[in-house]
Specification:
mainly beta, Immunoglobulin-like, four-stranded antiparallel β-sheet
Length: about 100
Amino acid sequence: MNLTCQTESSSPASKIAWYIDGQLVPNEAKSSQTVSEKGGLVTSQVLEFIPTREMDGQVVECRAIHPLSQKTGVYSSVTFDLKCKFTSSELCLFHTSVTF
């Protein structure tokens, strides 16, 4: 599954952090920045993972953190409602993506 997070325009560029049920998710994916019409930078990052049965009902958050702010940042969240066929290895067999 791919979840894509994209920030609003900012200068300097915001950083993105992912959380599942309040726990920071290590994500080695690089963020990309593009110049917005407003002149700031828009940051995007993709979280790639394979959903498991245990993830049903968990909340995934994408948090945008501005490097000059002392606040925790702006965030969006989605709750997993997994409707898929599980294999004997407990892996969910479907392909989808969500954009925040």
